[in-house]
Specification:
- There is one protein chain.
- By secondary structure, the chain is an alpha+beta fold.
- The protein contains five helices and ten strands.
- It has one domain (about 5-175).
- Helices cover about 25% and strands about 45% of the residues.
- Strands 1, 2, 3, 4, 5, 6, 7, 8, 9 and 10 form a ten-stranded antiparallel β-sheet that branches.
- Helix 2 (about 85-95) packs antiparallel against helix 3.
- The chain starts with a strand and ends in a 17-residue tail after the last helix.
- This is Dicarboxylate transport family protein.
- Pfam families: YdbH-like (PF11739).
- InterPro entries: YdbH.
């Protein structure tokens, strides 16, 4: 109970976990840096910056859900940048999608709301509503993006080598605490 972790420039907090679970354990996400998160995952197709906060109701022993009715939002300004090669490939392959993707090459996000569910087989369902500004060919426009995505996160993590990337990031950015000096040993101040 009452566990918090400083991670990725923000905090993840869990007030309580009771077993057996009759209610989900609520993971509060506060001001997580999307830039640090994306750097840890290391996808090549896009980059983001700005804080993310929300709540993820976590089930450990539910027959259907791992996360049910979770949500994320941006408490401050965010940016989204689609990789040039990725955007160019979409534009080349599909003219209609290409004109839309041009508005997403670089977007300043003013408001986002994402609903998240993950079933116990790893199927993630996200529904996002994003509002922001984009600039294309000297023109600025308000962009309203409604996006739904479904993907098996277990398969995705394996394909992105998420575990390897996260492990490497943790090794570079964390350190284990040093054991305290015992009275019967000479210790050096560092």
């Amino acid at each position: 109970s009452d566990v918090s972790v400083d991670v990725l420039g923000g905090q993840i907090i869990m007030k309580q976990l009771r077993m057996p679970q009759h209610d989900p354990a609520l993971l509060r996400v506060q001001n997580i840096s999307s830039s640090e998160l994306i750097s840890a995952i290391n996808p090549k197709q896009f980059a983001m910056s700005g804080p993310v906060s929300g709540a993820l109701p976590l089930w450990l022993n539910n027959e259907k859900w791992i996360i049910k009715d979770g949500w994320l939002t941006n408490p401050g300004p965010m940016t989204l940048r689609i990789d040039k090669d990725t955007a160019d490939a979409v534009v080349k392959d599909n003219v209609t999608a290409g004109s839309a993707i041009n508005w997403l090459r670089y977007m300043e996000i003013t408001h986002s709301w994402t609903k998240i569910n993950v079933d116990n087989l790893g199927v993630l369902t996200m529904q996002a509503a994003i509002t922001g500004k984009s600039r294309v060919d000297g023109k600025t426009a308000i962009v309203n993006l409604n996006y739904t995505h479904e993907e098996n996160v277990f398969t995705l993590w394996r394909s992105l080598r998420f575990g390897d990337n996260l492990q490497a990031w943790l090794e570079q950015n964390t350190a284990l605490p040093q054991p305290p000096c015992r009275k019967d040993k000479d210790c050096e101040d560092k």
